[in-house]
Design a protein that fits this description.
Elements (H helix, E strand, L loop, with lengths): L2 H9 L14 H6 L9 H15 L3 H26 L4 E3 L10 E3 L2 E9 L8 H6 L1 H10 L12 E7 L14 H13 L4 E2 L2 E2 L6 E2 L2 E8 L1
Parallel strand pairs: 3-4, 4-8
Antiparallel strand pairs: 1-2, 2-3, 5-8, 6-7
Length: about 220
């Protein structure tokens, strides 16, 4: 089974997405970096158990952490490849770049994949009709753990109407995602935003885009 088909097959084996159980941190990230090269779910489980025992970490907690990272990374990578397959999209040469995944219309973009945020103060219908508002809210409510991010972002928003807690499964709904991404790239709608860094009061004007996958 070719590489892409294999990883997609393995991603579909995951029945329950484990909770992080802890804030992401450098030590556990470093110890679980095998997730980038291991393609099978069983392989991730075996490797995680071996590393946890060797490092004297709680085995179940570390295994859950590694599986979550593995699922998030490989679904992100599969979705990124869909963008890169389009002739109007160019890859970022540095695959480890922290804030650029690809270039669209020569503009750098960071691909952010997430479920429709529970804390968003408006309805899903409002967000669909006012994507500019949702994009701005995403910037203003970004994680405070790292550096303030004001670069261009493409938000892929997932929402499973019947069971929102299962929205994570839409990251592997590859056929539907490919259709939505190709539809967007045929006539991209880019949103010009103006936002203020809450710490420095510096004004930023990034470009953003929002793609919804609602099931």
């Amino acid at each position: 089974m070719p590489g892409s088909n294999l990883i997609r097959h393995e991603l579909n084996k995951l029945e329950v997405l484990p909770a992080w159980g802890r804030a992401q941190g450098d030590q556990w990230d470093r110890l679980s970096n095998f997730i980038y090269r291991v393609q099978t779910l069983a392989g991730v489980q075996r490797q995680a158990q071996a590393v946890a025992k060797a490092a004297r970490l709680p085995v179940e907690a570390f295994e859950a952490y590694a599986i979550r990272r593995w699922y998030n990374y490989h679904t992100h990578d599969q979705i990124l490849q869909m963008f890169l397959a389009h002739p109007d999209v160019q890859p970022e040469a540095n695959q480890k770049h922290h804030s650029v995944d690809f270039y669209l219309r020569s503009l750098p973009f960071d691909l952010k994949i997430s479920r429709f945020p529970k804390a968003y103060p408006e309805t899903l219908k409002y967000a669909w009709q006012h994507r500019h508002h949702l994009a701005l809210w995403q910037y203003e409510n970004q994680s405070r753990q790292g550096r303030y991010h004001a670069g261009n972002r493409l938000f892929l928003i997932l929402h499973y109407r019947a069971q929102p807690e299962l929205s994570w499964q839409l990251r592997r709904d590859f056929d539907a995602l490919e259709r939505l991404i190709q539809e967007f790239l045929t006539a991209p709608t880019l949103l010009g935003l103006t936002l203020t860094n809450p710490k420095t009061q510096e004004i930023h004007q990034p470009w953003a885009a929002v793609i919804f996958h609602i099931k």
